[in-house]
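Limitations

Structures in this collection are predictions, not experimental determinations, and the ligand pose is part of the prediction. Treat each record accordingly. The example that follows, with iron/sulfur cluster as the small molecule, is included so readers can see exactly what is and is not provided: the inputs are given verbatim, and the output is the predicted complex.
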Amino acid sequence: VGRLILVLGDQVSEDLSALRGADRDDDVVVMAEVADEAGYVPHHPKKIAFLFAAMRKFAARLRDDGWRVAYTTLDDPANSGSITGELLRRADEFGTSHVVATEPGEWRLIHALQDCPLDVEIRPDDRFLASHAEFDRWAEGRKELRMEWFYRDMRRKTGLLMENGEPAGGKWNYDHENRKPAPDAVDFGGPMQFTPDETVAEVLELVGRHFGNNFGDLHPFWFATDQGQARRALTHFIKHALPKFGDYQDAMLADDRFLYHAVISMYLNAGLLHWREICDAAEAAWKAGDAPLNAVEGFIRQIIGWREYMRGIYFREGPDYTSRNELGHGRSLPGFYWGDATNMRCVSKAVEQTQAEAYAHHIQRLMVTGNFALLAGINPHEVHEWYLSVYADAYEWVEAPNVIGMSQFADGGIVGSKPYVSSGNYIAKMSDYCDGCHYSVKTKLGEGACPFNLLYWAFMDRHRERFASNPRMAQMYATWDRMKPERREQILSEAETFLNRMAQGALV
Ligand code: FAD
Ligand code: DLZ
Ligand code: SF4
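Predicted complex:
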């Protein structure tokens, strides 16, 4: 044969650069379910099942389109266990040493392909809006890499929500209209759910057998697993939830796992949806008068702004990014991230839904589990591995800048100019978690004090040298300094006691 065309689990897109210009008669598409990819972190079973099912259905579709596909299932006795192992095996089988690949989204796998003793051509992944070169050109010479400026360039480049070269409605960003606290009732029934078909059922059986002990519930499984289903899920969101997406973007409810979120990141990141079709659909809803500008602008910003920006940072910062630890945090991740009991209702609920759905929305990830880990001084690499494991949409290129950068400030402030820390107040304002919590959010110290309140000040105190001169944090330091010394000491000592009990595995 001519060449092997590698298609990875998160590359199930028809218009993949590796497939472009390939010869259906001469070339062979290689796809493989392998232990290495399924095991570099203990992925949530739903994430593995989603990818395997999407891979199998994509392979079937390619075959229908006349491609030759060499597909290795996890159970295949000949399975070598790794992507490069499978390439070597197929190279031998088909008598070729030429491989065409689309750049993987993790350095780990890029290096594996580069080190593989075959002739591997790695093509850019142009399913993204900004190439690495374009992002680097934008970043070059800037003191601060602010997402907002990058986003404006992407608006100009795509023409999305632009009118005669100006932003629609006269403003680039409508966030001041967003971020309302949690509503009393949500009139969106959640993302579209799909009944497992035969392919999915087979994969569920396989994943249950191999990964049943990983953290996370495999059943019920309702994700879309092909392009047609993912598009229906997108349409469902645009029609029923997008109009209120902006208003409640930052709200959290204990008994509503999705609010008005799209729940499409796993589809987009795997390649079942393209950013362009998503953004076009959102823009069309605004033009038709079906969704307000604050919602549509906010939604489009997440995709052509944040998502592309995060990818730019990951590739620009290089392979050592996930080991950064600028704040020197070293505690281990407590067991309640893996489902052990905790009295903190917000954390318990966010982890519980993560376990059930392999999904939590942005503010749960940032202001509950992320905020707690940062306040408690958890080793950011452990935090990173947790996020990479438990969410169905997690690949390093997007997970690491969100966790190491935005959430844990472990990159020293490349992604965010200030750490995302808050006391219990923020959670109380934006959610209903505090009602019925073992702790009292109004209690600042002493019996029943909310741990976020204690740990917040301990964090500020611990990192005074670094943050006191940050103008956006000066006011909090002034508040801290106004407290009586005995009160400050008591807060710090209670925070310490809490952390020590947590480290010993006590119920906290
Ligand atoms: P919506 O809230 O409906 O937003 C729409 C889309 O915008 C998402 O589907 C996503 O593609 C994009 N988006 C929104 N925010 C971001 C962002 N910060 N970075 C990149 N894309 C964004 N997103 C991932 O795709 N994979 C991850 O592994 C991941 N890890 C995260 C870890 C932390 C600590 C935090 C704070 C955020 C993380 N995010 C990650 C970003 C965000 O939380 C998810 O994209 C979002 O929750 C997905 O749900 P949704 O489709 O309902 O999103
Ligand atoms: C995440 C994942 C998993 C669980 N399994 C596979 C697999 O068996 N085969 C495969 O090709 N890809 C898998 N993936 C996705 C890869 O890990 C992903 O392509 C890289 O991490 C780069 O983003
Ligand atoms: Fe979380 Fe504190 Fe509220 Fe309990 S009181 S839910 S720990 S913020």
